[in-house]
Amino acid sequence: MIETLVASNVLLWLVVVVLCVVVLALVRQIGVLHERLGPVGALSLSQGPKVGDEVPRFDLTAIDGRYVKVGGDNEQGRSTLLFFLSPTCPVCKTLLPQAGVALGMALMASQRFDDLAHTILSVVLASTVVLELVAPLVTRRVLVKVGEVGRKAG
Fold first, then answer.
1. Cα–chain center distance at 110
2. pTM for this prediction
3. Which residues, 6 or more positions from 72, have their beta carbon under 8 angstroms from its beta carbon?
């Protein structure tokens, strides 16, 4: 009886140590990712339209056959923002909120697969909430660790 208790205790401690190593490896990867995405500001173009410049209006047909007006004011008299991105562009990924993209893709997938709609939405929503709560804390910890936060200017 005692041997079983000791063995289970040792096994649990081994699992805790392995999980700590995994967390440290993930934190390191976040730091590496931060270093790769560090020069995002340097990749911005200095040329382009100025604030308030008029944009030419385009009347287009979307892939699904809908009529789309691009440029100028919309029906409510408000401006429209177009954002072109590539799914493989790390800069583009930092400019879009990941939660919005995940939820949008989940909604599209749930419409396409009606029988799995509830499962898709539940899993994506739950994982997005968890990541949105945990990721900022881990990112801040990594930024403090590498000296990007709390460093005095000058």
1. 20
2. 0.32
3. 54, 55, 57
